[in-house]
Amino acid sequence: MNRLSNRLFKTLISMAALVLSGEAVLAADMPGVTATEIKLGQTMPYSGPASAYSIVGRAEVAYFNMINDQGGVNGRKIKLISLDDAYSPPKAVEQVRKLVEEDEVLAIFSMLGTPPILATAKYLNSRGVPQLFSQTGSSLPANVKEYPLTTIYSMPFRTEAWIMGAYILKNKPNAKIGILYQNDEFGKGYLRFFKQGLGDKASLVTQEVAYDISSPTIDSQIIQLKNSGVDTVITAATPKFAAQAIRKIYELDWKPTHLLINAASSREAVLKPAGFEQAKGVLAVNFELFTDDPAYADKYKDYFAFMKKWAPNENPYELAAVNGYISAQFMVEILKKCGNDLTRENVMKYANDFPEVPHPLLFPGVTYNATATDHTPFHAGQITRFDGDKWILVGEAIRPTPPTGE
């Protein structure tokens, strides 16, 4: 046997040994995957107007670090490349293209923010790249027919808006409702679905006031709402502006029924800046158990231990961190199910394998859902009230009946 033949023979023997040992030679169509690593990508608003949410990304990086310390997934370490998009759609497009075309990630995981997600969904779906656990409640990227490779992890705007509508119709059927909303699909989605959920009572909405995310304050919008005579306010805003709304309503000595969307219910990012006393009495829709409620201490035991060791500089009571924690857990579950068949197609197969799945950190009656025909993750939610110190439950979880045509 000549030298070349001998080298080829040894190479074939080595390849066979890898296969027999369970470390099969990876196919060429497995971007982001090697024998030792699984590469995921995401963009996150580490700067800009939605930076309060960036703890989601930091919690996810920390969770994967913990999994890697335990040996990874099927012998492979998870590398999450998390880039700043400043909550800017053009920046998100630029960063996502880099992640896909240069870093060649297996999938995009847990992008945050409706505008960045919508700006990149078409590109990722056309490239066959899964866009999983996107942190948005918009129903647009959850449209399975248009974006079959995009799943979301947030209370859908429409479900949340329908829950608020159901609560108002039951408890304040003659309300005069004013809606403060962000002037983009994030805010307009809430406006559209809230009115849709009211059905033939949509005329209860008597005032709609928008703000631009570049605005320094929304004081004038709150004054406009008060002067219009509404007695119920829906605030569909990001944390900075939700805090301003709470504070301004208090300063005006105005006492409307005030409902916050889930994304604006953070104790640390919204209620604390607004002032706990000023925020007393506000309502919100929630789907995850409260981190600061002693009643749930046992359920949060593993979570707090994780945060203390792997994210010691983060606020463990921030529910946005819980979002990242649960999303990362589900992502690891998907990768484990894939085994060594880590193609994008197989990742998507198992990403669609969450039919109404409960989680110990979700309220009773609330489940995460993602199937091949339905990418809306939560079909029920819990109305809560802030008592000046903590969120408390108001009734039981509400599973709204979809309006006719949905």
Structure, explained:
This protein has 406 residues and is α/β, with parallel strands linked by helices. The chain folds into 2 domains: 23-155 and 296-371, 3-Layer(aba) Sandwich (Rossmann fold), CATH 3.40.50.2300; 157-286 and 382-393, 3-Layer(aba) Sandwich (Rossmann fold). The protein is built from 13 helices and 14 strands. Strands 7-6-8-9-10-13-14 form a 7-stranded mixed sheet, sandwiched between helices. Strands 2-1-3-4-5 form a 5-stranded parallel sheet, sandwiched between helices. The longest helix is centred in the C-terminal third of the chain and has 20 residues, at 319-338. The chain is globular, with a radius of gyration of 23 Å. The termini are far apart. 48% of the residues are buried.
List the helices and strands and how they pair.
Layout: H1 3-20, E1 37-44, H2 55-69, E2 77-84, H3 89-102, E3 107-109, H4 114-126, E4 131-134, E5 150-152, H5 157-171, E6 177-182, H6 185-198, E7 205-211, H7 219-228, E8 232-236, H8 239-251, E9 257-260, H9 267-274, H10 276-279, E10 283-286, H11 301-310, H12 319-338, H13 344-351, E11 353-357, E12 368-371, E13 382-386, E14 391-393
Helix pairs in contact: 2-12, 3-4, 5-6, 7-8, 8-9, 12-13
